[in-house]
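Dear Dr. V.,

Thank you for agreeing to look over these. As mentioned in my earlier message, I'm a first-year student in the group and I'm still getting used to reading structure tokens, so any feedback on how I've presented them would be very welcome. I ran two proteins. I've put each sequence directly above its structure. The first is here:
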Amino acid sequence: MVDITLLTCKAYLHPKPGNAYVENIFQEYHLLKEALEGEGLTVARTNWDDPEYDWSQTRAVVFRTVWDYFERFNEFLSWLQEVEKKTQLINPYSLLSWNVDKHYLKDLAAKGIQIIPTHFVDRGKHERLSQICEQHQWKDIVIKPAVSGAAFLTYKIEANEIPKKEGLFQQLVTERDMLVQEYQETITEMGEASLMVFNGQYTHAILKKAKAGD
């Protein structure tokens, strides 16, 4: 029985070295592994969709670099539901399933937390970008799937490009729920802060900045 299984995706299980992004992943992995082992815990690592892994033989799984979930979302949710029956998920299924879908922004707004101005467009619903921007008096915008990460299908669209991008947006909406957000220049210039909270206690923050090409 393994105490903790750290989860990744297949692409980052045994990647080729020499890439700074990959090296950072492994640095974080080794730091976490050493910290857990320092507490007397045994640690394993595998991809979340490993068909040979016996999830009943690990006390808990910790989600790390599972960065293909948004491309295989229905499969990922089904997997979560099955594995939850066999071991402890950290975080629990209820929190994970809420957090991976950006509709959670509505919940935050309802609690009085200020969010980026956002317009939600459900899958299959016909709304034109030009109408959305006119309704909210937006100029430059960002479109992204409600379930996404790592700039997956995420586009910054300047005001004069909106007519040219209508076709792209309509195609995306036929496949998935989408968000249209007012572009925030400060995110590009300064980045955005992610605040870390453990058991209700704030511990630290990370400043995330867009890399070239995002």
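The second protein is here, in the same arrangement:
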Amino acid sequence: MSSLWGSSAALDTLKQGDVLNSSQYLVSAKQRFTLGFFSPTSYYGDKKNSYLGIWYTNYKENIVWIANRNRPISDDSRAFLTLDHLRKLMINSSGFGGDPFVIYSGGETENTSATLLDTGNLVVSEVNSNGSIGRSLWESFDDPIDTLLPGMKLGVNHKTGCNWSLTSWLAEDDPASGAFTLEWEPNTRRLVIKRRGVPYWSSGLQVSSSKNVSLFEYIHPTKGQDYIINTDAEGQYFTYSLDTEFDSLDQERSAWQLQYWGSIMDRSISIMKMSFCYGYGMDDEGCETWNQPECRLMGRQTFEQKSGIFTRIGPDGLPQLAAGVFDNRPTIGPADCRDLCWHNCDCLGYSGKEGTGSGCQYWEGNVTFNPDDGRSRSRILKYVLTKEDPSNKG
């Protein structure tokens, strides 16, 4: 194997035998996108596991694709990406503690290369005997994570068997598969968000097909984006493109990202008209309705993010710090914590576990929340149950 920079490979391409180590990058031809190893940073500045990902070159915090979301690297100092002579595109690292992570395993093609395009798509292609690029063998656009870039699809291709959908991160600093999915529903021609497989929100019906006007009832109009719905013999899908009439540096980094709390954001702007769904079904702009616990029906309860501590009255009659109940399961994130607390009528508040992206802490029973304007010794913000006027949206 040869180091990428020591070979004749272009900066946007891996050829067979090339190695990309943890301090090196692939950069697309016009430098729009970068591929390399990264470590997510939490709200508190902590870093832990590493991943191979793609991001907008000038906005590294905007990760648009991850190769190994559910198989993190504990030590990226020895991690490297290679396209070997058996046509396998894979990540090797002692931090895996096991076999390499294979991204693509080639077939009978003799020569292949992997190129990062200016669309953000990583494409493995066959290389013809004269050195020209032949047919595409695999592409990252067919293996989406939580992000829909212009030109990517949501839906199904009956010919290839591809079923395109997005799955949120588990938590802010944990890219593992989370609670929410975004799918295209061809029968109703709607975008649908599901939480753990249960319908949560939908875009509503198509209301317009003119340029730069929202196609759907419950999606905000976005200038410079054209929505495309395709139905043919090969399949049905939704995609969007950027209108060159509105071309700008900000528009160029457009990406629909399904957040770990269930919202769709594009450059920090909500695509959805509703920020969060509680399932009440009272003019909730696309939110689905589901059965509510009796205890939550009075006053349309919600959760508010606050800083402070929970206390309970001790044996001496004085307030004392109330310990939370922990749920240490590694497969649950903040959205699951909210749902579990919501369906437990004794639960008055919850938070994530400090220092981890997974797991929950709950406060139940005769406890009182005491806000402290950010002076709490705990770095974790709590979500505290409150009530609101039923005419407001929760």
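From my reading of the second output: Confidence is low (pLDDT under 50) at residues 5-10, 389-394. Residues 144-290 form one domain. Does that match how you would interpret it?

Kind regards,
E.
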